[in-house]
Amino acid sequence: MESVREEEPAIWQSTERVPPVTRSWHNYMCNGVISDFKASVLRVSSTLYNEKHLPDAQYEFPNGYNCSFGTERLRITEGLFDPSTVKGLTDKAAHGVCETVMKSISLCDPGIRKALYSSVVLTGGNTLLEGYRDRLIRELPQKIPQDMKLKVFAKQNPVERRANAWFGGATFAALGAFQQMCISKQEYDEEGSQCLERKCP
């Protein structure tokens, strides 16, 4: 594969007798490119969205195509914190990261809300975006009740942070009391959320 100049078409040669590609493999490879692009190019503005003074980032796609990205680096990720910037989003009830944290905690018992605000854990691939943690730490304290103290935890290891939810589920499943605490689909269909209060008081 030969690299080409920016905005120029790729130089390539079609391979004959290529075995058929399954849809799942195609989707897997596309998702891999998207993940690599996200990690290499995108970042979250540490303050309110500001396109100024942002250096361009070069990215070479698998077919050799090179492209320079400027304001898109921030614009694409801004929707995580401000959904109103997402064109075509019709759901006015969509919440940004900070609002989602506050909404989730507000639905919990008032007696544990203070502990939850002091135990916010960043997990998942998007939290690895450059500037994500700084933006959350800057914005969330301005919106939460004044008597609450925010403390954010984040694993430094990217693999651990990306799979934290899985690790937590695996640890929970290994507990001796798992069978008594787990809820089957049939139970949830019959009782709804009440079975959560019964099994996990």
Automatic annotation (TrEMBL):
InterPro entries: Actin, ATPase_NBD. Coiled coil: none annotated. SMART domains: ACTIN. It comes from the Eukaryota. Gene3D superfamilies: 3.30.420.40, Actin, Chain A, domain 4. Belongs to the actin family. This is Actin-related protein 4. It comes from Leptobrachium leishanense (Leishan spiny toad).
